[in-house]
Every structure is written in C-alpha cells, then in structure tokens.
Amino acid sequence: MGATAIEAVDAADLDRDARAAWAAFRSARPELASPYFDLRYTLAASQVAPGAAVAVIRQGGEIAGFFPFQRRGGLIQPLAAPLTDYHGLIARPGAAIDLAEVVTALGARRLRYSGLLESGITAGDGEGRAAMIADLSAGYEGWLAQRRAAGHGDFLRDKRRRLRQLEAKHGEVAFTLEKRAAEVLEMVLAVKSEQMLRTGQHDVFSAPWTQGLLRRLTNSTEADFGLRFAVLRAGERVVAAELGLLSGDSYHLWFPIYDPEYAKFSPGALMTLASLEALAGQGVTRVDFGPEGEDYKKFFADPAGRVLEGDVRVGPRPLGALTQAALGAAPPTLRRAATRLDRRLDRITACEPRVGGRVGATLKSVALLGRRHRKFTVGAGLGLAGLGLGLTAE
C-alpha cells in the first residue's frame, strides 16, 4: 500500500488529475451516487462554507481518496454540515482509510458526523441507520408494482382517494417540478425557519452561508445537476413544496414543507408520489429519502446500505466530552436528552463559525427549550451549556 500522505487543499485548486480520480472513484462505487458526493456540490459548498477544504489522501504516492470537510477550531465536520445529509470518503474501490489518521493529519482533535458512509473507513464510533432509497430503475409503474408487492397497496389506494377529495373540495390539483423557482426557494426558507424556531431548534438558515449554498445550487446551469423545486397546488394555493438535489440519474429529497390546513389530504405524500412519477419520466433511477427514522419513508423506499452518526476523537478529551462521559451513568431518559442536545450543538457549531455566534445561539436555544419544556429547563440548560463549552473550546 505504501505510506499515507494527507494534504488539505481548497476544492477549487484540485487539478485535472485529482478531478479525474474523483470522477473515477464515484463511478466505480454505486454508494457514491448521492448528489452530495458530486464534485460540483463540493465546489459550490466550498465557495460559501466557512473553513471549507478537501483532504486529499495519497497512498504510495497515488490518490486513494478525498474527504471534504469544514474546520471549527479543533473540531472538523463534513463539508456544509448541517445541510449535507450524507458524507464520507470519495475513495477508490477497496481502499481502507483510517479516519483517525485523517483527523490527526488535519491538526484536529475530533470529527463529528451524522450521515457517514460505512464503506472504506477503518475508524469511527457511531450508530448505524439504513439509507432509504426508492428504486425507479424500472420506471414509475415498475416502482408502483414493487410497492404493492411489498404490502403497501392500501397506502397507495388511500392516497388516490385523498387526491380525489382534495380536488373535489379545493379545485384542480397541479404538480410542477421546476428549475430556478426563486419564489419557491424563498417560501421554503421562510417556512423552515419558522418551523425550526417554533420547535426550539437552531435556525440553520439564519446563517448567510447556508442560504448562499442553496442559491448557488439554484443557479446551476447544468441540466443534470442542481436544485429542483417540487410544488403541489390545489386551485391557486400551494399545499406542499420541496427542494431536491439532482446529480445525474440520482435525486435526493431535501427540504419539504406542507400547509397544515390541508393535512387531512396528506399533501406531503401526494407531492412525493407526483415527484417520483415526474423524476422517473426524466430518467432518474434512484431517489434518496435520507436515513431511516421517520415512519413514512417505508411506504416509498427500502433500506439500501447504512450511514453512521458518531465521532472520531484523537488526543485528550475536552470538557464537552467529559460532560458526556458523566452522563453515561445517568438514566436512559437523561441520556436521550443529552443526545438531542449534542445534535443541537452540532448544528449551532456548523452554522456559526465564530465562538461569539455559537455562545449566543446556544443561549438562545436554551431559552427556547426552557419555554417549551419547563420541567427540563435547568437540566437541559446545564447540559447544553456544558456541551457548548466543550465544542467552543475545541
């Protein structure tokens, strides 16, 4: 194999040979079909995400893989976290790359991830979840037959009934799958921001760079790459919309919204069915619903590979890690709460590259949690503050 050498470079500085290697690795490994592993996505994210870089990993003098990331002090995260649902090594088939070695070479102490591909790594401590994929390789009718065979015929019949009811009560139902729909982008951003604030989460779209990434993806002029906008209307009213990301014949459903006044008609499911039909008509063969967790995904997709949530640590443990270790002996309820708080911190750290911004966002999140869950105000506040100190120190 030879010695391993790891160098961090700006994505824009990858030369022709490196870009060719990236394309070859991706085409040779079906699990890298996701749009998040498209070099064009990395280039767009690198132009806006603070601390962005790509680790170029060489073994025996030859490029063995790439790892796009963003730096937050001694912590590194996948590039464009928390927006990037999947991440990992873009590596040659059969490569075995130690993520701890990558973290050390980058001068970091910790790597945090939430959707890391298992393939090709030899280090990492994380819990696995299935990636949920809809297979459209046999077309939309073939997919429908597949879902019926899987026992979901009642679900499909129910959605046809709800579609008829929606049309009868609110007028003609129309669906579009568009490119460069600026007004849809603004609507989705506004609704998702309001939703995150209402549920006590950090508003990831309050960071200028996250909006900047979506706008760059919207403005892509390439026919097989960039954001697409699914919109379902009843009469003149938008009842559901979603941003999705296209790369070749693969598509990732990303940010959905729906009008709660129309909830009884299942507008989200109706939009998803219409999206799958339209995408199949455009030659898309794989639609990714993200990692398992939400129950609705099983009606549309099947498990296909696993992704991990966890971290890689090197060197001494910081204060935040000690706080988490102390929670190891706590009751399960408190441990689950700590896990949720850790995820909140990950989002804040990703969105806010400056320590001051992280501290302000952490305090705001504590206040929101306190208003929503008064019984847990003190425990949640202490837990989040402790974790926050750890990550800001890193």
UniProtKB/TrEMBL annotation:
This is GNAT family N-acetyltransferase. Pfam families: Acetyltransf_6. It comes from Phenylobacterium terrae. It comes from the Bacteria. Residues 156-298 form the BioF2-like acetyltransferase domain. SUPFAM superfamilies: Acyl-CoA N-acyltransferases (Nat). InterPro entries: Acyl_CoA_acyltransferase, BioF2-like_GNAT_dom.
